[in-house]
Amino acid sequence: MTTTNEIADKIASEHGLTKAQGKSIVEAVFAAVTAAATSGAETSIPAFGKFKVSAT
User: Fold this and answer.
1) Distances in Å between the alpha carbon of 41 and those of 1, 31, 52?
2) Do the beta carbons of residue 51 and residue 41 sit within 8 Å?
3) Where are the domains of the chain?
4) pTM for the whole thing?
5) If you ran DSSP here, which 8-state letter would residue 2 be given?
6) Burial code of 6-20, b = ≥16 C-beta within 10 A, e = fewer?
7) 52 class by beta-carbon count within 10 Å (0-12 exposed, 13-18 middle, 19+ buried)
8) Phi and psi for 43 in degrees, rounded to 5?
9) Which of 22, 25, 38, 41 could join 8 via S-S bond, C-beta 3.0 to 4.6 A?
10) Rg (CA), the chain
């Protein structure tokens, strides 16, 4: 299992950023996906998945 921190560390190391900057990027991506899904929009990330809040 990969954690948010592990993803952030990988992004930081691959792009010459601090761990804090990497974590900020990861959190921003998840926040954008969440905001889109809760507004009814669908977010599609190829090779990862589609996200949308469904009315049940």
Assistant:
1) 28, 13, 6
2) no
3) 4-51
4) 0.78
5) -
6) ebbbebbeeeebeee
7) middle
8) -110, 130
9) 22
10) 13
Cα–Cα dist 46/44, whole Å: 6
Q: How many CA atoms lie within 13 A of 33 on its CB side?
A: 14
Sequence-distant (≥ 6) Cβ neighbours of residue 33 within 8 angstroms? 43, 45, 51
Query: What tokens were used for 29?
Result: 């991506």
Q: How far apart are CA 46 and CA 41, in angstroms?
A: 16
Cα–Cα distance, 38 to 40 (Å, whole number): 5
For 24-56, what is each residue's pLDDT tens digit?
A: 999 999 999 889 888 888 888 898 888 887 766
